[in-house]
């Protein structure tokens, strides 16, 4: 039987022979090992938290008149808003042209109230009742609170009704509550 | 990380091709048994003080180039940040085979360049005894995550080098690529690190092991004819 000759270029085998000699040298191997360890170590340098850890409640303003099967979007001329019990600390301070809002739920409670001041000093209070669950984001970011809306109640000065398209308040950027308003009394 | 694994596979492929190209007649073979300790756990602890992993390995060469291998170990994680504390303790076990590509080369003198195939299983208990949820408007609240169990199993492929230092002492490194097969969570909290698998960032992980081995002969000389 003749010796089988592999059909690969001879440079390839020379390269492999060099590799074998290289592998056989323990000093070099130790160096290679330490180098790769440092490389892996540098890949794992992720001490910073780059994710959002707060999950606000998102609400949008609408008129009850239906356009294309859903309420018509509405932009308020101005809005002031504070969390119930915190009239000294406004979340929105006479903000102009408001189409939607983001507000924080109270993680220490099962209900959070929000007091709205619409144009013409018309005020309404909206109460959101919810359950909460802890969620682990990462070792760097720690934990965040997820909420599930159970019930929404409100006064009726300017707020006509509400709709709840999304009851889960988490990382997702969806709108949770649609606030349907009576048309502007001044118009 | 992806490019590291790509070059690693190219290297393994070239070694496999070259092993096939070698010719041989007879071989005196004495089964061997080796015990090892993974030094990379200590090095990783230096780079990432929150994780401590100890691993011991045992391998038995039952026929030339083929090793039955197992690894077992312990993991301890302690994360303490401004916003949370997280602790985990776990054990792991891996079993499989190593295939030595270069044993017949006389220049290697008992050194190995090997491929490794493993099945791994890890289980752990973890908890977050202090969690602060920061809420600037309403004020922060403190909470806890009660201790819960977690287990996972995975498959891994890898390879590395092993070389004789002196006496029967060997040193070698070994890179592994792991693919998660299944997880069993005891709570909605995902662990930071999975014992034996590595950082819990998706279904794959790459880890380098750097072990010190002691090799014994185990059995009588056998003649192998190829």
What is the fold's blueprint, element by element?
The complex is a heterodimer of chains A (187) and B (226).
Chain A: H1 10-24, H2 26-43, E1 57-67, E2 70-73, E3 76-83, E4 90-98, E5 100-103, E6 111-118, E7 122-138, E8 142-154, E9 159-163, E10 168-169, E11 177-181
Parallel strand pairs in A: 1-11
Antiparallel strand pairs in A: 1-2, 1-5, 3-4, 3-6, 6-7, 7-8, 8-10, 9-11
Chain B: H1 2-21, E1 26-29, E2 32-38, H2 40-47, E3 51-63, E4 66-80, E5 84-100, E6 112-133, E7 141-166, E8 169-185, E9 193-194, E10 198-199, E11 204-217, E12 222-225
Antiparallel strand pairs in B: 1-12, 2-3, 2-11, 3-4, 4-5, 5-6, 6-7, 7-8, 8-11, 9-10
Radius of gyration of chain A: 31 Å
Task: Identify the biggest protein-protein contact and residues per side.
Answer: A-B, 50 and 57 residues
How much β-strand is present in the residues of chain A?
Answer: over 45%
Number of domains of chain A: 2
Principal-axis shape of chain B equals elongated
* CATH domain class of chain B: Mainly Beta
Largest sheet of chain A, if any? Answer: 6 strands, antiparallel
Topology pattern of chain B, helix = H, strand = E: HEEHEEEEEEEEEE
Structure class of chain B: mainly beta
The best one-word shape of chain A is elongated
């Amino acid at each position: 039987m003749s010796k089988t000759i592999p059909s690969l270029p001879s440079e390839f085998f020379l390269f492999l022979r060099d590799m074998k000699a290289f592998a056989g040298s323990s000093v070099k191997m130790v160096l290679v090992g330490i180098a790769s360890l440092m490389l892996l170590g540098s890949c794992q340098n992720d001490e910073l938290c780059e994710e959002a850890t707060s999950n606000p409640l998102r609400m949008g303003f609408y008129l009850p008149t239906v356009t294309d099967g859903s309420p018509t979007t509405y932009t308020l001329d101005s809005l002031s808003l504070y969390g119930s019990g915190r009239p000294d600390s406004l979340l929105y301070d006479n903000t102009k042209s408001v189409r939607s809002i983001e507000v924080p739920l109270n993680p220490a409670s099962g209900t959070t109230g929000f007091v709205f001041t619409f144009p013409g000093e018309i005020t309404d209070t909206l109460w959101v009742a919810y359950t909460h669950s802890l969620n682990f984001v990462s070792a760097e970011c720690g934990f965040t609170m997820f909420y599930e809306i159970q019930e929404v109640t409100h006064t009726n000065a300017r707020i006509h009704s509400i709709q709840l398209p999304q009851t889960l308040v988490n990382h997702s950027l969806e709108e949770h509550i649609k606030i349907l308003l009576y048309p502007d009394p001044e118009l | 990380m992806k490019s590291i694994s790509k070059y690693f596979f190219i290297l393994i492929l070239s070694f496999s091709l070259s092993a096939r190209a070698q010719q041989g007649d007879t071989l005196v073979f004495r089964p061997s048994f080796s015990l090892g300790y993974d030094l990379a756990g200590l090095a990783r602890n230096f780079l990432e003080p929150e994780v401590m992993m100890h691993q011991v390995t045992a391998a038995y060469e039952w026929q030339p180039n083929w090793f039955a291998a197992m690894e077992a170990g312990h993991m301890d994680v302690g994360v303490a940040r401004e916003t949370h504390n997280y602790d985990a303790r776990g054990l792991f076990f891996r079993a499989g085979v190593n295939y030595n590509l270069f044993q017949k080369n006389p220049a290697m003198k008992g050194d190995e360049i090997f491929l490794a195939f493993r099945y791994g299983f890890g289980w752990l208990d973890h908890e977050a005894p202090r969690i602060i949820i920061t809420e600037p408007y309403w004020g922060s609240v403190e909470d806890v995550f009660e201790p819960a169990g977690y287990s996972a199993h995975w498959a891994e492929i890898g390879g590395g080098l092993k070389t004789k230092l002196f006496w029967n002492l060997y040193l070698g490194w070994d890179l592994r690529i792991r693919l998660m097969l299944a997880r069993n969570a005891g709570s909605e909290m995902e662990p930071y690190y999975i014992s034996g698998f590595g950082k819990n960032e998706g279904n794959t992980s790459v880890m380098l092991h750097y072990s010190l081995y002691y090799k014994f002969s185990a059995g009588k000389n056998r003649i192998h004819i190829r």
